[in-house]
Amino acid sequence: xxxxxxxxxxxxxxxxxxxxxxxxxxxxxxxxxxxxxxxxxxxxxxxxxxxxxxxxxxxxxxxxxxxxxxx
Length: 71
Fold this sequence. Notes:
Layout: E1 12-14, E2 17-18, H1 23-32, E3 39-45, E4 49-54, E5 57-62, H2 63-68, E6 69-70
Antiparallel strand pairs: 1-3, 2-6, 3-4, 4-5
Protein name: FeoA family protein
Organism: Ruthenibacterium intestinale
Domain Ferrous iron transporter FeoA-like: 2-71
């Protein structure tokens, strides 16, 4: 398994696990549609994080969050 931070741009991955003890963060990711079994694509890597595509939305997430999403 690797983290979203290590993902290749434009390749679709399946979320395997969200590795955080922060319930608010878990709830936030769930509200975006980011949870185990869901496809996720890194659109581009930025200096402080990355832009991801989940379902029909695009979101900018920081590196700390990207490292908590295992693919």
